[in-house]
Design a protein that fits this description.
The complex is a heterodimer. In chain A, strand 8 and strand 9 form a beta hairpin. In chain A, helix 1 packs parallel to helix 7 and helix 1 packs parallel to helix 11. Helix content of chain A is 23%, strand content 20%. Chain A starts with 5 loop residues before the first strand and ends with a helix. Chain A folds into 3 domains: 252 residues, FAD/NAD(P)-binding domain (3-Layer(bba) Sandwich); 34 residues, no CATH class; 201 residues, no CATH class. In chain A, the strands form 4 sheets. In chain A, strands 1, 2, 7, 8, 9, 10 and 20 form a 7-stranded mixed β-sheet that branches. In chain A, strands 6, 11, 12, 14, 15, 16 and 19 form a 7-stranded antiparallel β-sheet that branches. Chain A contains 11 helices and 20 strands. Chain A is of the alpha/beta class. Chain B is mainly alpha-helical. Chain B has 2 domains: 32 residues; 106 residues, no CATH class. Helices cover 54% and strands 2% of the residues of chain B. Chain B contains 8 helices and 1 strand, in the order H-H-H-H-H-H-H-H-E. In chain B, helix 3 crosses helix 5, helix 4 packs across helix 7 and helix 5 packs across helix 7. The N terminus of chain B is likely disordered. The chains are: A alpha/beta, B mainly alpha. At the A-B interface, strand 13 and helix 9 of A face helix 1, helix 4, helix 6, helix 7 and helix 8 of B. Bound molecules: flavin-adenine dinucleotide (FAD). The site of flavin-adenine dinucleotide has 40 residues of chain A, from helix 1, strand 8, helix 8 and helix 11.
Amino acid sequence: MDNYDYDVIVVGSGMSGGWAAKEFTEKGFKVLILDRGLPIEHGDYKTENVAKWDMEFRGQHDREEAKREQNFQRTSYLYDDYTKHHFINDRENPYYSEEGRQFDWFRPSMVSGKSLIWGRQSYRWGEIDFKANKKDGYGCDWPIRYKDLEPWYDYVETFAGISGDNNDDVEILPNSKFQPPFVMNIVEREIKNRVESKFPGRNIICARVAHLTKPTEEQMELGRGQCQTRNECGRGCSFGAYFSSINATLPAAERTGNMTLRANALVQEVIYDPQTKKASGVRVTDIKTNENFTLTARVIFMCASSMSTVQILQNSRSETYNTGIGNTSGVLGHYIMDHLKGVEAKGTMPGYLEHYYKGRRPGGIYVPRYRNVNKQDTDFLRGYGFQGGASRSGWNDAIKREGIGADFKNANRQPGAWTFSLGMRGEGLPYFDNHMKLSETKTDKWGFPIAIMSTSWKENEWKIFEDARNTAVEMLEAAGLQNVVGINKPAPVGNSNHEMGGARMGLDPRTSYLNRWNQNHEVSNLFVTDGAAFASGACQNPSLTYMAVTARAADYAISQLKAGIL
Amino acid sequence: MEDINRRDILTGLTAMLGVSALSTIHANAIEVGFGFKPSGKNAIFNEQQMKIVELIANIIIPDTDTPGASKAGVHLYIDHMAGNWMTKDEASSLIKGIDKINTDKFTSLNHEEQVVFVQNLDDNRDKEQTYNTLKSYTVVGYYTSEIGSTLELNYDPVPGKYEEIPFDSVGKVWA
Ligand SMILES: Cc1cc2nc3c(=O)[nH]c(=O)nc-3n(C[C@H](O)[C@H](O)[C@H](O)COP(=O)(O)OP(=O)(O)OC[C@H]3O[C@@H](n4cnc5c(N)ncnc54)[C@H](O)[C@@H]3O)c2cc1C
């Protein structure tokens, strides 16, 4: 290993970092994986299997405590007494947004990052997504195409386990290597038939989720098992049934004997060596002991989650690079993206009252993008899709129900009518104007400069919100649903949890930060493989693509290491 | 303020729906005894208030073929929430409201009269804030209790597969 502490340092142990660790260690390289989060072992999920009556407030979080400690994280839809310890402490880890340019930044608190708490919706991006920037001129052209990623999707899906329906045949949304899907219920099938026959080009398919429905040998060897449809995933799953780094990639890396994982390790900067013109290592603070230290490696993989990765890179200043390592282009911190969220539509389906279900599916249905697919059919660019599903309400209806006594109690045993709902995820364009920078004066208690976010939706996004609401309502009404309501309450940038951009890939070193291998144009041993690398955002949930991109970049770096180039 | 209460409860509910326990199911659970075991921490109701809350909760959700609110310890749950979860303002307005119910001599009525009294409150829910709060908490407290979840409703902590089934095959909603 010459003079290096490790072959590879991976910053971040979540969705992307886990893959980097697995790929390098399996090829025999010594990897150090650093994470600011608290240590956690697979199975070490303190609220899993705790009945609600054994929770102090039956699962509701203490509002005063949440306001004090996690004033922002508490706004996550997932945040409650069961999951709150998987979110970061905002008091100790503040960030700011510029006035009127709010960015919602949900951050994890543990090793394995947001892969522990994600929603597991997993869709490939297609050809149309990688060509979008070139076609309409927003953002820079992606230096890769679907074909470049396709084998890597196959590869990561086979290992991670994605459930979905092989019969899907949607032009712009390639199928994954599927395990069997969670089936649609009768009401969803009926709505699918009605919508698809009335709106050619619109499809309703089974949600694709990173859950094992038919575990492979490889998955079982790692101790992972079949999904039990408890739908309590945010607490952690000791069945290892949904993909997270803690139950899949990190154990795979661990068993090679080549991985060292260090928790509580806040990476503050990547160190640049002007002699070699490479990154020599990272500067780290142990958040428990406040000890500062430097570690070196031949290759650095940045996988700290898009905005955190950019924060570290912007803080990596030297005489050569006074705005951040490898940032001659000046694009570092710009072109930040997220998915549009906040449009919903729902309605009730009359009838089907004799039908019910058992189990709590992790996902219902998905409506792939249908706008601007083969031709420009709207006055905005790109498009949106919907997640959704049909279900029947339970005892919570009793809160509003009138009546008392035995009749009331009996009524509460009956499920409510079927309701069907759709929630939109839309594509936000990459804008230079959407950016982040570091505070020049304020740091957290470990001396790490605080990030200042500055983002807003613009005209194209407002049009998408409007159109999504209208077409969602139109589909629900055409499907015969009653009491249809459409909601258009755009959430701030960041709220959909899909932070992307800030260190984009591109063909031209003057306008992009990374090349087609996620390698910095200037500092050749510095790679960024989380969402920061993305040149556009598509409208599909991004994590599956982070995995594929990371595995592909690791494979390239491995070949360069072997060839003695890195 | 009642609105805030209600909204928080509803938000919390999403989190609680379908929550379950693997470790806590044992065959003899019923003999072992259910009911909310209060930590007693910051208990806030006096005896009289506790009595009123218990009576009202048990009229809203009485014993039928399954135990009702009182046996599920719903009054203790509400006391616990009032003392530890509600804001001071929320708790004190609840307590004032409960005391007011008593100035109407609620406890001295016989059972039938109490039922009529509560029915009347229920008919005027929109105006009866204290009752509204008590009812919401009774519902949540009961259906998230061990009795409410496992005896009254259908408790399925580890379903295995997602399947379509006829409603008749289970006959009641999932906990
Ligand atoms: C509630 C929720 C639901 C979601 N649902 C979906 C979904 O359905 N589908 C989907 O595709 N995506 C979803 N996501 C997003 C998904 O979780 C992320 O896209 C994914 O985890 C990002 O991977 P990552 O490796 O970039 O970051 P992470 O998985 O967050 O890992 C980054 C790691 O880096 C560490 N780190 C950060 N800063 C530093 C530092 N300075 N030094 C050292 N370590 C650091 C963090 O502690 C963390 O462990 C969801 C997210 C949330 C919160």
